Amino acid sequence: MRMRIAATAARIMAEEGIDDFALAKRKAARRLGAADSEALPANDEIEAELRDYLALYQADEHPERITELRRAALAAMQALERFSPYLTGPVLAGLAGPYAEIELQLFPESSKEVELFLLDHDLTYDASDERRYTGDRARAVAVITLDWDGVPLRLSVFDPRDERAAMKTTQAGKVVVRAGLAEVRSLVETDQDARAA
Fold first, then answer.
1. pLDDT per residue over 72-116, tens digit each?
2. How many Å separate Cα 67 from the centre of its chain?
3. How far is CA 153 from CA 11, 12, 31, 91, in A?
4. Residue 137: pLDDT above 70?
5. In the chain, which ranges are continuous DSSP H helix?
């Protein structure tokens, strides 16, 4: 049952554009009639199934979509360079679905600097606070969502002192993988070289 839930959760993520592993697990378990006490698969198991699913069923369009999203992420990071941007999430991992957001972490001196930058560039945005985990503590950070050249962009605005801290998915969870501007530029070049070959 655990393997069936992992495979179904991967299909849900790929086809429905869900990026939240916990939500995909719960939906998959419900669809398969699994009991609440059933052991759910780990995120790593679902990620492996998702990579297999994308390679098998979306072999042509998925790499193209990832390249487009990474190019858009690079453009956003270059525009926001003074705020020390890092790419994270499904776009970085190469697992982004059809409705994925580009997720960036920013480390400005003040979150107001980011908002002023967006206002100066006539970019409409929504702001809220969300819980994020840095090091061993939970904290509220400003999260700004906007449309960036037709792609949804989510900016998590951290304190500059947090740039060197390990970001986690939960307080006891896995460390969030992230990439700076030079790494994303290299990823885009690699994607383009692979598509040209």
1. 999 999 999 999 999 999 899 998 877 789 999 999 998 899 999
2. 14
3. 24, 22, 31, 11
4. yes
5. 2-16, 21-32, 43-57, 61-79, 90-93, 111-120, 181-196
